[in-house]
């Protein structure tokens, strides 16, 4: 799998270097492979879904409707977010999960901003060199397609923790819709089939996976029903016995047994010792708005805020969306912020993260001062800018309730369908989140990120993430909820959704649809969505030293609370055609 992807990338890079704009999605390993072409005319016409009271936007329409139903029955945004999360584990199995982990950003109606960290942890037997062979070379597939790639899952504890602290409903109540969808099945749409079809060969490798996710050995077709009885039983066990069934009981036992049988290192001690934690969210200001986002072990909020602080003085609104100047300065800000991200950030339980320095006005000014007005800076000239450090699949959804509570969740199994394996008859895919660690300093991971020793594997450590569930406040009240899947492109997709509204005056749907940009330090290319650049602006930028590669970018699921009308404006990303924005 990964070999093919990497060959494709190398080919794409070679073609890009020769000046041709080429098609590749490798930078976003959770892409479902279908990228709608969004013309400028279509972009002009795009409109969000509106609602008066409450709104849910997710990458799968049935999960969205589970959330809307909970809100209509009087549940709050946390109840709905947890119900959507369990439902997505059934109806969006590539990415929604109980076998992975994630983050939840919450703004409560009383003004509190909260952040819940339920990122997976490395097993206690993990070691820094576990993905290298005896010669120190990274072994392809070991961190992505094997049981060694599985981090201790956090989703079930995360959802339970959020619900107990701020929900109003029981675990049983919010899991019930997911159990029904798994037991009775659901009818597949084109978007569902696209993501399942993309992993047919992987599913065929394991009899217990093929029995569920292939239809008599063949890919499911649009209109067919996907039933998941094993997953229904697992969810029922959690609903009846609580999360101990997952962390101390039969579910952990089944995963550990499968791990033992397949060369993994997961133990019952890993599951019993797992913790979900409340953290202080990252906060920064951008043009008068307050941005509330993900702190380490996610790099998302820090990198997003660093980019915003670098670009704030530039007149993006005057320059316009997709203009040579906007592209140039956003790309240069991203390049510098990602160099810092990849050098200085890791799990704060293990390493020091210099957040105050990275997000100081002085640091943004010093990085800004290195941007040349008329030329691209080669990534080889950029280093992590604070001196020596001390030391990707995914889905996003957004929920706002009638009282103004707001919840943004991004959670993941890393690659599409995680490590593509299911332990015994548990019915859920396990993650391959260990690939988010640095397998070897200086060697790119599956998302192409070249990371440092600060993010090396250690027992019990959480791998550095790019997930960026973000709530933007205006005068202390929710203005926008946003976030995306897409490994490193999560950060640039989330960034684009904010500046497309704040700087370029787009409505929420236009801001989500608009072709995006991404630069992550290495590789030294700029990823650009089809239609972002005119041939003339691309030529001007190439003359400044840029090399472009076409990509899809993440899949933003966003809500804007329009301060003029008071209406909620929901926008599902057309890059997830099975998704839906709905409210009441
Ligand atoms: N697995 C993608 C991320 O956490 O960044």
UniProtKB/TrEMBL annotation:
The keyword Cell membrane does not apply. Pathway: Sulfur metabolism; glutathione metabolism. Belongs to the gamma-glutamyltransferase family. Residues 1-24 form the signal peptide. It catalyses: glutathione + H2O = L-cysteinylglycine + L-glutamate; an N-terminal (5-L-glutamyl)-[peptide] + an alpha-amino acid = 5-L-glutamyl amino acid + an N-terminal L-alpha-aminoacyl-[peptide]; an S-substituted glutathione + H2O = an S-substituted L-cysteinylglycine + L-glutamate. L-glutamate binds at residues 119, 412-414, 436, 465-466, 487. The keyword Membrane does not apply. Gene3D superfamilies: 1.10.246.130, 3.60.20.40. The active site is at 394 (nucleophile). Cleaved by autocatalysis into a large and a small subunit. One of its GO terms (biological process) is glutathione biosynthetic process. Its EC number is 2.3.2.2, 3.4.19.13. It holds the Pfam family G_glu_transpept. One of its GO terms (molecular function) is leukotriene C4 gamma-glutamyl transferase activity. This enzyme consists of two polypeptide chains, which are synthesized in precursor form from a single polypeptide. Keywords: Acyltransferase, Glutathione biosynthesis, Hydrolase, Signal, Transferase, Zymogen. Residues 375-394 are annotated as: Disordered. It comes from the Bacteria. This is Glutathione hydrolase proenzyme.
């Amino acid at each position: 799998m990964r070999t093919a992807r990497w060959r494709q990338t190398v080919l794409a890079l070679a073609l890009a270097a020769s000046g041709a704009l080429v098609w590749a999605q490798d930078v976003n390993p959770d892409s479902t492979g279908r990228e709608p072409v969004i013309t400028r005319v279509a972009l002009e016409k795009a409109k969000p879904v509106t609602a008066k009271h409450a709104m849910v936007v997710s990458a799968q329409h049935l999960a969205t409707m589970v959330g809307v139903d909970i809100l209509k029955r009087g549940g709050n945004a946390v109840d709905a977010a947890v119900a959507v999360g369990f439902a997505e584990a059934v109806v969006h199995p590539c990415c929604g999960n109980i076998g992975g982990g994630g983050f939840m950003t919450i703004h409560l109606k009383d003004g509190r901003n909260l952040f819940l960290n339920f990122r997976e942890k490395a097993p206690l037997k993990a070691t820094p060199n576990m993905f290298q062979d005896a010669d120190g070379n990274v072994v392809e597939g070991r961190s992505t397609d094997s049981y060694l790639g599985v981090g201790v899952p956090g989703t079930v504890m995360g959802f339970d923790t959020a619900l107990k602290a701020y929900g109003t409903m029981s675990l049983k109540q919010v899991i019930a819709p997911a159990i029904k969808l798994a037991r009775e099945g659901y009818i597949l749409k084109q978007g569902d089939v696209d993501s399942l079809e993309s992993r047919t060969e992987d599913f065929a490798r394991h009899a217990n996976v093929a029995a569920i996710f292939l239809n008599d050995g063949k890919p499911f077709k649009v209109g067919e029903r996907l039933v998941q009885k094993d997953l229904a039983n697992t969810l029922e066990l959690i609903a009846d016995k609580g999360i101990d069934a997952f962390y101390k009981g039969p579910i952990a036992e089944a995963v550990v047994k499968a791990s033992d049988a397949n060369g993994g290192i997961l133990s019952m001690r890993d599951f019993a010792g797992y913790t979900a934690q409340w953290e202080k969210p990252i906060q920064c200001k951008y043009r008068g708005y307050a941005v509330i986002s993900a702190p380490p072990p996610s790099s998302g909020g820090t990198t997003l805020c660093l980019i915003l602080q670098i670009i704030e003085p530039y007149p993006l609104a005057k320059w316009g969306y997709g203009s040579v100047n906007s592209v140039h300065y956003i790309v240069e800000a991203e390049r510098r912020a990602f160099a810092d991200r990849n050098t200085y950030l890791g799990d704060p339980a293990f390493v020091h993260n210099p957040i105050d320095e990275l997000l100081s006005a002085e640091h943004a000014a010093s990085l800004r001062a290195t941007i040349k007005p008329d030329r691209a800076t080669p990534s080889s000239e950029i280093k992590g800018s604070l001196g020596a450090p001390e030391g990707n699949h995914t889905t996003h959804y957004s929920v706002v309730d009638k009282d103004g509570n707001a919840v943004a969740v991004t959670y993941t199994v890393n690659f599409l369908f995680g490590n593509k394996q299911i332990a015994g008859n548990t019915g859920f895919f396990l993650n391959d989140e260990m690939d988010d660690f640095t397998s070897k300093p200086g060697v790119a991971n599956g998302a192409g990120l070249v990371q440092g020793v600060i993010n090396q594997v250690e027992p019990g450590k959480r791998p550095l993430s790019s997930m960026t569930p973000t709530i933007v406040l205006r005068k202390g009240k929710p203005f926008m909820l946003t976030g995306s899947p897409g490994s490193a492109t999560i950060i640039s997709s989330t960034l684009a959704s904010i500046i497309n509204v704040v700087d370029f005056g787009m409505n929420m749907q236009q801001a989500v649809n608009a072709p995006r940009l991404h630069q992550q330090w290495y590789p030294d290319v700029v990823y650009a969505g089809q239609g972002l650049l005119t041939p003339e602006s691309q030529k001007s930028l190439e003359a400044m030293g840029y090399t472009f590669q076409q990509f899809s970018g993440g899949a933003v699921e966003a809500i804007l609370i329009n301060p003029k009308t008071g209406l909620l404006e929901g926008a599902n990303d057309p890059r997830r055609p099975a998704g839906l924005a709905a409210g009441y």
